[in-house]
Design a protein that fits this description.
The protein is an alpha/beta fold. 49% of the residues lie in helices and 13% in strands. The protein has a 5-stranded parallel beta sheet with strand order 3-2-1-4-5, with helices on both faces.
Length: 183
């Protein structure tokens, strides 16, 4: 699976557009594979559309893509009672923790040294919260967490440009059924 002597990184990806900036910044320093685990994305047709775009972009970038199970029941269970929370609140914290825990488990089983996530590309996501969760999970699984703020250095703007360049589908909500209902 690993092709060279670079450090290995399993990059959790929420979608192809957000992965563009992260991959561009990390590809020279890490041997990257993508992990698509997003049980928060609903409806299933939206999930599949985003997954198809992630597969297409991974192929363009010649990156391996691993996919977790589509476990909406686990997301609903873990966020029960938080349906009316604002975006960025406790519901989001639990959602991020769920996805990054699964990423860490996949990283261990596949022999990766480090984990990261594309979630910080979004201007709507709290990078400090994401990195706190990533740090905790890294310690639990003895993985190196890559604590990045991909929206810095015009990362979000760059993701828009790269999405356009590659003709990637860009969604209008994070994927969570509850954030969609709030629009």
């Amino acid at each position: 699976m690993f092709k060279n002597n670079k450090k290995t990184l399993l990059l959790h990806s929420c979608c192809a557009p957000c992965s563009t900036t992260a991959i561009e910044r990390l590809k020279d320093s890490y041997e990257i594979a993508l992990y698509y685990y997003n049980p928060n994305i609903m409806p299933a047709a939206e999930y599949e559309k985003r997954l198809a775009e992630q597969r297409r972009f991974a192929s363009i970038q010649d990156l391996e893509l691993f996919t977790g199970e589509y476990e909406t029941d686990i997301f609903i269970r873990d966020t029960k009672g938080l349906e009316d929370e604002r975006e960025g609140g406790e519901r989001c914290r639990r959602c991020i923790a769920l996805r990054l825990n699964k990423t860490a488990q996949a990283a261990i089983s596949k022999g990766f040294e480090s984990i990261a996530t594309t979630l910080s590309v979004s201007p709507h996501k709290n990078t400090a919260l994401i990195n706190t969760i990533l740090s905790e999970i890294g310690r639990c699984y003895t993985l190196n967490p890559l604590l990045e703020d991909f929206k810095k250095k015009d990362g979000f703007k760059k993701s828009l440009e790269l999405s356009k360049k590659y003709g990637l589908y860009r969604q209008s909500y994070c994927g969570c059924v509850f954030s969609r209902l709030k629009k």
